[in-house]
Design brief:
With 262 residues, the protein is α/β, with parallel strands linked by helices. It has a domain of 182 residues: Alpha/Beta hydrolase fold, catalytic domain (Rossmann fold), CATH 3.40.50. Helix 4 packs antiparallel against helix 7 and helix 5 packs across helix 6. It starts with a strand and ends with a helix.
């Protein structure tokens, strides 16, 4: 199965989109009708997700670099040298790593609900403990039970019960298509607890860096404002959305992207 999907004419500027943990390239479909009129959109499955079952070895500590190499290799095969880069949550953190490693290839960097890194050792220790627990649950529980727990986390409180049920059923169907060991390895190897500080990446770029935060996501609004004190990021608040903006407010997000990049 293909590990990427392309929308829009190849003569248009390229926009590469990276989904979050448990997501797939299909997560971007609600944005494609409008975005594909202005961009050649390349939606990729991150390693361990969807149809991308490229192996990440247990001894490979830097999962983010592995993901970056995987993405760059795919873009090189498509002869795409420069592009706008959009990443959500885990995809945003991968996008930051890519921007740091290949700054000359970016036309702009767009981050949705993305963390630049933990600097506090106690926070890192707590995150390692928490991620290890989630990794165990991923393997031991049924997909439905795991996802029902996952989407009860505080960051997803804006989701209605109906929306949560729909997302859980869709994600469970995708999870059950492949062994979960690969996804577990990617989850641990790309853990925020293991991520180096990327707070200074926007300062090193020649292009603009945009940060999208949902109006109902107080945690990432505060994080973005703190980040803005140290780096040239441009913050955009999207009404009617929490952590997952492209799912909750696709039209508002698309309109904002087009205004910024159009």
């Amino acid at each position: 199965m293909p590990t990427l999907a392309r929308y829009g004419e190849t003569t248009l500027p390229t926009l590469v989109l990276l989904h979050g943990f448990l997501g797939t390239k299909a997560d971007w479909l609600p944005l494609m009708p409008k975005l594909s009129q202005h961009f050649h959109c390349v939606c990729l499955d991150l390693a361990g997700h969807g149809d991308n079952q490229a192996s990440i070895t247990a001894e490979m500590e830097d999962g983010s670099s592995f993901c970056v190499q995987d993405i760059i290799a795919k873009l090189d095969r498509l002869n795409i040298s420069q592009f706008h880069l959009y990443g959500y949550s885990l995809g945003g953190r991968i996008a930051l790593h890519l921007a740091k490693a290949h700054p000359q290839r970016l036309l702009s960097l767009l981050l949705e609900s993305c963390h630049p890194g933990l600097n506090d050792l106690q926070e890192k220790a707590a995150r390692i403990k928490n991620d290890t627990l989630w990794a165990e649950r991923l393997l031991k529980l049924s997909s439905i039970d795991f996802l029902n727990l996952w989407y009860q986390q505080p960051v997803f409180t804006d989701m209605t019960a109906a929306k949560r049920k729909t997302v859980v059923e869709r994600r469970a169907a995708m999870l059950d298509l492949h062994p979960k060991q690969m996804l577990k390895e990617v989850f641990l190897a790309t853990s925020l607890a293991r991520q180096a500080s990327l707070w200074d990446v926007p300062s090193q770029l020649a292009c603009e860096c945009h940060f999208f935060a949902g109006s109902q996501d107080a945690k990432f609004h505060a994080l973005a404002q703190e980040w803005q004190l140290h780096a040239p990021i441009l913050i955009h608040s999207i009404n009617g959305a929490g952590h997952n903006i492209h799912q909750a407010a696709a039209e508002a997000l698309t309109s904002t992207i087009l205004k910024l990049l159009g």
